[in-house]
Amino acid sequence: MENNFSAENSLRLITETIERSRRAITKNSGKPLVLWGVLVALTAIIIYVLWKLTGSPAWNFLWFAMTAVGAVCMRSMTRGGEKVPETEISRMLGKIWMWFGIFATGFFALVWVAWGIRQLAGIEGPLSVDLTLVIVLLMGLCGTLSGATLKSRPITFSSVAATALSVLFLMVLPDASPARILTFVILGVFALIVPGVILQNKMRG
Length: 205
Fold this sequence. Notes:
This protein is mainly alpha-helical and 205 residues long. The chain has helices spanning 2-27, 30-54, 62-79, 88-121, 131-150, 153-172, 183-204.
């Protein structure tokens, strides 16, 4: 009887700890979501304008600069904020976005390697890879998984809706149009800023 009681208490304690951690992480997710949403949207607009003015897609390398700026801002933001305990949930979220970064950066690098090989081999014609679509799907998937992990409907639904809208936007535009980069404005606003604001308002309430 005592063993069963202890097992039940242990299970309840573990469950409560996980739920407290989940709530703490969700509570502290609002500002980072808004920050990254603003950075993604602004970077996409800047790249689009420079691409249109110069005709060069090389401005896409500004995404790496955005990542560095975001990392500095995140460190500054979390320095004086509430400490979230390191749990399985926080580690899972970290791994989800870590693998997003690895896949997105790796795929981006492979596209440029393939382009270089084609140039050296004298292969003519456009490189038939829709990098934007791949990144959009990866980002949407990771956002949805994050929302599901945190049991946050705003994050989950916003990620799904923003991904669907972005894919539709890409299907309508011509393949070589610089305007395709503006897809990330849709993702930044609807998959990051909107759920971030909702979470912030819920925390204040």
